[in-house]
Structures are given as structure tokens and as C-alpha cells.
Design a protein that fits this description.
A 3-stranded antiparallel sheet has the order 3-5-4, with no helix packed on it. The protein has a two-stranded antiparallel sheet with strand order 1-2. It is mainly alpha-helical. It is extended, with a radius of gyration of 39 Å. The chain is built from 21 helices and 7 strands.
Length: about 475
Amino acid sequence: MSLGRVKTMQYFNILSLILFCLSCYWLVVHTDNPNGALTVVNTDDEDLSDATIEVEEENLDSKNVFYPTNEWQTIKPGQTIPRGLHIRLNLKTGQKEAKLMEGDDGMKYWKHGNKQGMVNTDRKLFTKEQLKKALKSFKATKIDQDPTLSLGKEKQDKQKFRTMDELKEVLKDMNMDVKTDLQVIRGLLDKYRHMNVKLEDKLSILEDLEYYLHQIDNAVNFADMGGMEDLVKDLNASDSQIRSEVVLVLGTALQSNPKVQVKAIDSGVIQHLMRMVAVETSHTVQSRVLYALSSLVRHFPYAQKRFLELGGLTTLKNLFQKPSDKLKVKIVTLLNDLLLEQHYAEKHGDVKEKHQKEKYLQYKKIPLLEILKEQGWCEFLPDLLQISDLDSREKVINAMKTLVTTCRQTFVSAHKSLQEIKSEYEALSEKDTDDSYYRDLFHSVDRLLKNLNMVGNEHSSNKDEL
């Protein structure tokens, strides 16, 4: 072999080696390019460590995916933006810009049509843990966005869990019985109607009924079974414990339950409650009677009208002769709530809703405010300001705010007491700066005093003229 041919072969080998190195470099660079997509191959195994990941070439141009950094970059039209970025509108250029949020680890997810991807802004390579994280995100997003998968999950849940009827069959074989609330209430009512039921058993039945009748549907079913009439009979029971529990059950069933309220009116409950308010000697029973009466008349204009027709305000007024301040505050709170109901109905009486307009017309037939003024209820409130309990005093102040227009001349006598209370609340609000409770009380009394000061000035000018 000639020397020239040997050199030619050497040059050829060197050139081949160079081309091979360039090819390897090209493959490495293009393999690191993040323009590929992570494709999840579905498996039945929930363990993501056994899942398969394939990298496929995307038709999505790399320019169409926004790669965020810690610096603001302009978002080009049509670019897919990963979630969780800090985005702003540059007022100078009028273009949207985005960057990573502070503390971000650089892992961002994007979606374009049916494709999803993960962008690693720190480096172009993904670790095994990062790929697992991507799989979890894709799987959760797919289930959330695909209703057919959710339906499939529901079917799996139904296959996994038994129905109520199936459970009953199983428990029946185990000599166990599962009852619905309706069945329980019917059973309790049957036991209650038994003539020879003992006092302790009767009290236990009433306690169970009070628990079940908190639910509106249960209370309606109880009334449909005639339970209201059974309770009314025991409002005259000789034992105060029975009367107390019966009234409590009534109040629970009536609360915010229009259907039961109507049943109670038809059963004469309001007359019995009014009688008990007048003659009951037990403070506990009286308090529960007020609770039941309040549950019956609230948001029920017809019951409020019947309450006034039966002399309800006079009956409640007589309770102010008794020493219980708590009882007096409960009465004031009830009357204040009824006045606020009327005020709300008047304020919204011009709306087009037929139900609201009908309610407004019903409230117009209830002269509650006029009767309160005629019977001298304005004089009771200033005396209650001496109560030391803050919650009770707040309720009295709220009632005075509601009645200030009607009772201004009478409330002027409480000016000194209100000033002292205002100073007390101001001092408390300065000590407890983290809580707005005392500050709100302070402003409430302050607004009441401003109204009274106006009346006081008018009263003084009238005296000067005389």
C-alpha cells in the first residue's frame, strides 16, 4: 500500500470520527429539548412507580409555549401560559408580561387543547420524582375535567358501597333493625300515647322527640301524625317537668317551620301558651313558654295578629312586675325582632314578588308599634340599662334604637345612663384593640345619644319659651 493511500485512509477515519461526534452532539441537544410531551400510558395499577412515560414529538411549536423565568417576559399572541405565574399588563407597551412567583420551584404545568405538559424552568432535564409528580397532576386534572370519568367513579362507588335496603337485609340477618327517623318518631309517639307510661319514660320520650324535631321534615311528619294535639293535652299536666319538656318540644318543632306553625294555630296552641305565660309560677317553664311563643309568632303575621287580639302585650307587660331581668330582656328582644320584621316588610313591600307583597299587606294589619306606645312600653327600657350583663344590655340598646323615634321623649331620661355606658365601652375598646366588639357597642350607644340630644335641645327650648 502506498504512503498516499495510507494518509488518505487516515484522513477518512478522522473525518468519520468528527461526523460521528457531531451526530451524537445533535442527538443530545435535541433530546434535551422540552418541546416533547409527556404521555401517560394508562395502567390499572394505582402505583405510579410502575407507570410508563413516553416522550413523543409534539406538533406544538416551542414558540407557542411560554417558558417563564424570574424576569418579566412578554407573552406573545397565541402562547400557552403555564399555571401559577405572576402576570401583569405593561402600561407603557400595552402587552401582557409574566414571570415566576417568588419562591417557585420552577415546575409549571400547561395545557393546549387535549395536550398537557410540564415545564421545568430550572433545567431541561426531569428527574424520576418530577415525572411522578407530573403523572399525579395529569391524572387529577383529567378526572376533574372529564365528566365521564367522574361518572365511572360513581359507578365504582355504587358497586363498592351497599344501598340502605341491602344494609337492612344484612342487619336483619344479624338480628339488628335499622329505622328511619319517621319510624322512630312514630314509635315514640305510640309509646307517649300509652295510658300507663311512667313519668320517667314520658320525660325520656319527650327528650328524644326534641332531638328529632330539630329537623324541619321530621317536625312536619310529627304534626301530620297528630302529635301536636298530644302535646297540647299535656300543657295542663300537674307535673312541672312534663310541662317544661312539652313546651320545649313545641318550641323546637315550631322554629322556622311554617307548616307546623299553621298546625299549631289550628290546634289552639297560642291560647294555651298565653294562659301559661299568665299563670305559670316556675321560672324555667316561663322561659321555655316564651321560647315556644317566640317560635310560633316569628315570621308569621297571622299568629302575631292573633297574639295581639288575645291581649298578648298586656300579658307580657304583667311579667315586668316580676324580678327576673333575664325574662324581661327576652320579652324586649322578642318585641324588637317583631318590629324589625315589620320594618323589613315595609321596606320591601313595593317589590313585584307576590309572596313578599302579600306579607307586607298582612303586616300592615298589625298595629304593634301603636299598642306598644299606648301601653307605656317606652318606660320599661331605660330601667333595664342598669343590667350589668353586656349581652343583655346590648339587646336593650338595640330595642331602644328601634323605638327611638316613637319613644324619644321618654328615652331622654336615660341620657345620663347612656353617657356612662358610652364611656365604659370606650375604655374597654381602648384596652381590647384586637376585638371590635366594644368599639361597635360604643358606636351604637353614640348614635342613640345623638338622636336623644336632638330631642333634649328641643325640650330645653320649649321650656325657655314657657
